[in-house]
């Protein structure tokens, strides 16, 4: 079975082909970051228009990369939510139309389920059950994963997602959108002992998160520093980035420890854009070696949005005989 996967939920057009025997045989990605940079965030209408321009050429490129023709495709998976409604409609309309024309089944995939299963694309995939920390630009969730399709939400952010907090704080520090990765690089130059940011919601029981206060804390620290130093030196900018990142990472580690204790599990996976963060990976590796457990993450290119995770998730569902009707339906808000 060979499945074409299409991801268009936000500002990345991703197309990939997953083969039951050989694994991932094509992967194409086009990022719209440059298009939205001037606006400091994703402009939904521009995102939809760019997906229209890029999806079909990327499908052709993926088929060429795998040396296949349309006749070799047995099913099409596409992200049908959550995400930007217009962007989702582009991917689903193209996927549904091609599936109709090629006479193959199609399946709508939950974007976060795609992220959650991305570590399964690696050479040494985790066994079920495990705890998943999903940290992206739109979501922060802890999920108990019993098997494919059986997910228990343990906790989630009550306001900003971790990636969103990274991006907003990066913007305050004058970095381009999306500034998560740039903030993280800047933090490497920072003095970890200069500022201390709070670890939100760690002083009470439970597995929910709140990150919006950290952005406000960063903003207040920044105002104070600018006043005292008559401007912002690059060292102070790095010191704030460092304190912010440390607070997010510590908070995530504390909650992962709790989730593992609560579920009695020793396997943790992290996925979503923020799982590319080096400091978070190091801290969670340290936690899991203390707990004598294991941590799994996707390779960096599959942490952020991509078509491979959608092709793979769609493959698993189509293999189980599931598929969605011909109706073009998207679910901008959708709990997993
Ligand atoms: O999963 P993703 O590509 O898109 C969503 O589904 O939201 O995640 C994008 C998020 C952005 O907020 C981006 O700044 C963040 O992931 N991100 C990072 C890093 N790389 C990407 N945040 C912190 N450190 C990184 N290295
Ligand atoms: Zn995502």
From TrEMBL:
Its main location: cytoplasm. It is an enzyme of class 2 (transferase). HAMAP family: TsaD. InterPro entries: ATPase_NBD, Gcp-like_dom, KAE1/TsaD, Peptidase_M22_CS, TsaD. PANTHER family: TRNA N6-ADENOSINE THREONYLCARBAMOYLTRANSFERASE, TRNA N6-ADENOSINE THREONYLCARBAMOYLTRANSFERASE, MITOCHONDRIAL. It comes from the Bacteria. The keyword Acyltransferase applies. It catalyses: L-threonylcarbamoyladenylate + adenosine(37) in tRNA = N(6)-L-threonylcarbamoyladenosine(37) in tRNA + AMP + H(+). It comes from Seminibacterium arietis. Binds 1 Fe(2+) ion per subunit. Belongs to the KAE1 / TsaD family. Its EC number is 2.3.1.234. Its cofactor is Fe(2+). Fe cation binds at residues 111, 115, 305. Required for the formation of a threonylcarbamoyl group on adenosine at position 37 (t(6)A37) in tRNAs that read codons beginning with adenine. Is involved in the transfer of the threonylcarbamoyl moiety of threonylcarbamoyl-AMP (TC-AMP) to the N6 group of A37, together with TsaE and TsaB. TsaD likely plays a direct catalytic role in this reaction. Keywords: Acyltransferase, Cytoplasm, Iron, Metal-binding, Transferase, tRNA processing. Residues 24-312 form the Gcp-like domain. This is tRNA N6-adenosine threonylcarbamoyltransferase. The keyword Zinc does not apply. GO terms for molecular function: tRNA N(6)-L-threonylcarbamoyladenine synthase activity.
């Amino acid at each position: 079975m060979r499945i074409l996967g299409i991801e268009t939920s936000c500002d990345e057009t991703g197309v990939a082909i997953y083969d039951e025997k050989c694994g991932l045989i094509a992967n194409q990605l086009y990022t719209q970051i440059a298009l939205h940079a001037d606006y400091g965030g994703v402009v939904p209408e521009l995102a939809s228009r760019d997906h229209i321009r890029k999806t079909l050429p990327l499908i052709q490129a993926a088929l060429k990369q795998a040396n296949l023709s349309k006749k070799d495709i047995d099913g099409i998976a596409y992200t049908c939510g959550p995400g930007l409604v217009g962007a989702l409609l582009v991917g689903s309309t193209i996927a549904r139309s091609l599936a109709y024309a090629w006479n193959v089944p199609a399946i709508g995939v939950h974007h976060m389920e795609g992220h959650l299963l991305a570590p399964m694309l690696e050479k040494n995939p985790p066994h079920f059950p495990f705890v998943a920390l999903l940290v992206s630009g739109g979501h922060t969730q802890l999920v108990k994963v019993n098997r494919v399709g059986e997910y228990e939400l343990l906790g989630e952010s009550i306001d900003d997602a971790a990636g969103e907090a990274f991006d907003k704080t990066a913007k305050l520090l004058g970095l381009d959108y999306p500034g998560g990765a740039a903030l993280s690089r800047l933090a490497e130059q920072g003095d970890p002992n200069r500022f201390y940011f709070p670890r939100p919601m760690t002083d009470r029981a439970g597995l929910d998160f709140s990150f919006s206060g950290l952005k406000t804390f960063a903003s207040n620290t920044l105002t104070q520093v600018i006043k005292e130093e008559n401007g912002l030196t690059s060292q102070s900018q790095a010191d704030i980035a460092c304190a912010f990142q440390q607070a997010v990472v510590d908070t995530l580690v504390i909650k992962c420890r709790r989730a593992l204790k609560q579920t009695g599990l020793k396997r943790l996976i992290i996925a979503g854009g923020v799982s590319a963060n080096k400091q978070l990976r190091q801290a969670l590796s340290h936690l899991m070696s203390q707990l004598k457990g294991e941590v799994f993450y996707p390779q960096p290119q599959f942490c952020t949005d991509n078509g491979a995770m959608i092709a793979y998730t769609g493959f698993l569902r189509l293999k189980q005989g599931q598929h969605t009707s011909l109706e073009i339906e998207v679910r901008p808000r959708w709990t997993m």
